[in-house]
Amino acid sequence: MSAQAGHGASVRIEACGKTFADGTRALEPATLDIARGETLVLLGPSGCGKTTMLRIIAGLEVPDAGGRVLFDGMDMTAVPIERRNVGMVFQSYALFPNMTVSDNIGYGLKIRGVPSKERAERVAELVALTNIFGLENRRIDQLSGGQRQRVALARAVAIRPGILLLDEPLTALDAALRDRLRGELNRLLRALGITTIYVTHDQSEAMELGDRVVVMQKGAIAQIGTPREIYFTPRSRFVAEFIGAANIVEAAIEDGHLVLPGGRQPIHCDVDMPAAVAMIRPETIRVTKAGNASLSGIIDSVSFIGDRQRLVISGASNRLLTVDAPNTVQVKPGERIGLSISPDAVRLLPPDN
Amino acid sequence: MSHKSFVWLCLLPLAVLTVAFFLLPMARLVVTGAEGPQGLAGYLAILTEPRYRATLINTVLLAAATTVVTLIVATIAGMFLQRHRFPGRAVLIAMLTFPLAFPGVVVGFMIILLAGRQGLIGDFSNRLFGEKLVFAYSIYGLFLGYLYFSIPRVILTIMAAVQKLDVGLEEAARSLGAGPWAVQRDVVLPALAPAFVASGAIAFATAMGAFGTAFTLATNIDVLPMLIYTEFTLAANFSISAALSVGLGIITWFILALARSFSGSAVAAAG
Questions:
Q1: In the list A21, A44, A155, B198, which could disulfide-bond B270, CB 3.0-4.6 Å?
Q2: Which residues of A touch B263 (CB under 8 A)?
């Protein structure tokens, strides 16, 4: 939930699937509730159906028969996008090249017949909100990528939409700018408190911006949860590997221990299993002396990243283990080290199907 | 041989061709225009002599009307053809662009078959109303012929421009509340403007100078190329036909230059 009282509409999509004319299934029938004022992120690799879902909510795609889209409980399935009162930011920004920045921002108000004086006031408000002073009379081709992104956002918000839809709004920008604008966008969304649906393939964007994250895979919802839930308790190997770095370990379980090539690792599980799949995040593994450690391995490589160093360990698990160690630990490749992992940090995953 | 003189040598054939086949005849034309009994005033006659002036205005109006109607028809058709996939689409596009293969005489012939004294339209109207509708030999027949001639050229340019339109722009306008008409007015037509200017200029220039169709049809009307022909061959009035040719060239060149200043280099690309 947003820090402020929620604005805008609640959204419910009900059994919305999408099959394209050529028979491709872009989206399996999905049901999803988005609370008023919530920021929901649709996250997944390209082709996972996240953009299709956004376009169904926007009204740019019609769901297959049986699917319904509701805003504040009202059925909007048959309402075209121009009457849904949604603000939308496109990946390409889609700013009108034949209009100035202020005309772009004021376009939705002009269409709604807002008098020019009132329109100018609202445009000025948004110029201030998105911090684009001095650009009002520029043409679109005179703007930088970051400036375009702000204008696109200002234009979408100007009409006071019930729902704000953002389709990969930062993807077109270079990495440094993306990081900066992400923080800015986060503050802006919190300040607006409007119901927001945000599509991205970037998991760090999803973590930072989302109240809840919907991880999607091959046209279906893989998991819905807060960023913490998704990170710490992924429900499948796909989610574990897509969000952050993850070590996937395949091993037998005996007496509450994973039996690994490099030793035994205690876990919270009382049932013995011949073949289990577990996830261990790199930052939860502590490096110790090899001496009497219950689990040990050989350092394959050490990469110094600055705030930490990333070690790759062989011989501990059935495949290479990645470990994020503090940048002060003195280790070198070829050394044997012990690995200490809390049982809480080992997450059992359902076996692959 | 130095590098520089080699480059100049390579330019020589171009220079010879330009001088022999372009500059010399042009200069000769301009001089001939001023060699009549009235001297340089022969050029003024284009505007002062009522028959010449009327023909000039006729031709410009006809070319302008052809351009406007062609743009309207070709835009609607081109947009539809580019945006929709249906059986027979390829055949339809091929048919629409087929007139490109015909010389003006054939186009004139087709207009006569359609709206001439033995034409289809005349037959129909005769059976329905007991009166033969014949307009092939009037300015309307010529207009129809020019339209037939211009639409293929314009439609191809418009289709290429529609293909390059960013669909996101239309979706963005719709998300902001714009209905279908507002989307066309505020987004699509402005984005197509350079293509309109470019293909419109070509249509105008073609209609200004077209001779074959006019020659086949124009028994009742005078258009500039016809007037030049009659002054030259029948009246042997060399100086006036030269002056008229220069006038025709200047008007057409002016329109093309105007179009080019509006749309950058798109006009050349549309040729």
A1: B198
A2: none
